[in-house]
Amino acid sequence: MRTIKWGIIGAGRIASTFASALNSLENVELTAIASRNQDRAEEFARKFKIKKAYGSYEELAKDPEVDVVYIATPHSEHKDNSALCIQHRKAVLCEKPFTINRHEAEYLISLAKEHKVFLMEAMWTKFLPVNAIVKSWIAEKKIGEVRHIRASFGYYSEFDRSSRIYNPDTAGGALLDVGIYPISYVMYLLDELPEHVISSAVIGRSNVDEQNVISLRFKNGVLADLSSAISVDIGSDAVIIGDKGKIVVPEFWKADKADRYDAQGNLVETYSLPHPKNGYEYEAKEVNHCLREGKTESSIHPLQSTLEIMTIMDQIRQEWGLQYPQEKERGMKQ
Ligand SMILES: NC(=O)c1ccc[n+]([C@@H]2O[C@H](COP(=O)([O-])OP(=O)(O)OC[C@H]3O[C@@H](n4cnc5c(N)ncnc54)[C@H](OP(=O)(O)O)[C@@H]3O)[C@@H](O)[C@H]2O)c1
Asked: Which of 81, 96, 104, 247 could form a disulfide with 240 if both were Cys (CB 3.0 to 4.6 A apart)?
């Protein structure tokens, strides 16, 4: 089997987690790391046994040995970092949110089409086997007709305007950081676009949303009650409620277990599968598979899904009047 050679851009927190996942896979080589700082790149390379450490992103993008680049930088940087790699004909797996708005997402997608390279948003939740089981339980009507979904993702992070989470310059805020998970999850489970979206947010001290609630209504009569936060720990469970039972997915965004209950509230089925490493190996495997097959996008998380999610998040931010500084500067609508 062909060995897929990976590069990583940005030597931060999630890059470390993903590097561990890559190093646990067979027929994969983590070939290069790039940081804005040479020392940081070398330290990361030592830790994860990577043979090449670059002090600039350009050098990695130009490395002919690298097949695919994982972009692990703040939201505001995704467009330029991904574009740099695509222009050098690298396949790209870009962290969520794909970009800060639909306009940027469309640009990257057209660039990837022009250069005929693979492109995917790293929405790893959609590749977890437990979530595939939850989707199959719904399709098999094991809880009857789905009527209502509750899902949240929120944590407490002390206010720090300079952190990527609170900083508007890095496109911080709860919606783009974690609100994207419940939205993506519901659309993944239902395979539908919502017909109606309403929401409310607390815009905080640094002018990003510190918490929000979002209601989605779907054509088939399903309501989704979603929330996210960076300033309060609201948990991250999902409950999918049908007319003949419900499914509870603890920490759905990194799910390794799901419980199914009947209409009387009795536990009738549990599916549990511990992650071989940390759960990020599943999305990496999908990318490896697509590259070996010569595909330019994933059928599990296609670019159209990314565009649909970006559109909903733009619409929500528009309702709140939340524009990022770079959008204001360019006189852009979201
Ligand atoms: N899938 C998941 O479960 C998950 C979890 C956490 C985060 N994420 C996503 O992953 C991305 C990175 O998050 P993270 O928590 O890893 O962030 P982080 O720890 O702050 O790391 C981001 C890295 O990006 C680089 N960078 C480039 N431009 C930057 C800038 N203007 N300001 C700050 N750093 C910059 C820095 O690396 P160098 O200085 O080395 O170049 C930095 O270490 C985000 O899109 C986030 O939403 C995903």
From this structure: 247
Catalytic annotation, pick one of 47, 49, 90, 96 = 96
How far, in Å, are 124, 135, 177 from residue 129 at the CA level? Answer: 11, 10, 23
Find out whether the beta carbon of 79 lies less than 6 Å from any atom of ligand 1. no
CATH of domain 133-274: 3.30.360.10
ω before 97 within 30° of 0 (cis)? yes
Ligand 1: distance of its center to the CA of 71 in Å? Answer: 9
Residue 110 structure tokens: 């057209």
CB-side neighbour CA atoms (13 Å) of 112: 26
Share above pLDDT 70 across residues of the chain, in percent, rounded to a whole number = 99
Would you say residue 238 has pLDDT above 60? yes
CATH code of domain 4-122+280-302? 3.40.50.720
* Ligand 1 atom closest to the CA of 253, numbered from 1: 3
